[in-house]
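Table S4 entry, Ribosome-recycling factor.
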Amino acid sequence: MTIADIKKNAEAKMAKSIEAFKSELQKIRTGRAHPGILDQVHVDYYGSMVPISQVANVSLLDARTISVQPWEKGMGAKIEKAIRESDLGLNPSSQGDLIRVPMPPLSEERRKDLVKVTKGAAEDAKVAIRNLRRDANEQAKKLLKDKLITEDDERRSLDEVQKLTDRTIAEVDKLLAAKETEILAV
């Protein structure tokens, strides 16, 4: 393994951490409707739990309403029950084959709670990134110990990994600030 391999590996893993953080942010709801909110809701489909998106068409009716169109007639009640029992605080209503899921407006207290949840997710992402930095640095130190690289190469590698870490954490902070603004906007 070379220094370039260590850096490339760390960069790829840090990019995955950013993607995981982005998907975590999508699960945190704001006042607006978003079909991705229902991604974490699973429904019983012939004995197995599957995401709603695998048994119904999820789309937006307007800025505050999600529509869920089941592909099978008998699934409507099960989907409605799964949405109601999820921890999202949503109250779906059936209109024939169509299930309407209105998004209730967020109270100020709930918005502040969501900001705390968002900050917690950001901190988890930063911890994961720092752990990746530590692993990359340990690999570089091992190469030095095995006399495969010089001390200058090791120092350069540590600096490059630190710069990569700083850039990645700055991106997490930027995503966090954008999500906070979105949550607190009335």
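The helical segments are 3-27, 75-85, 108-145, 151-184.
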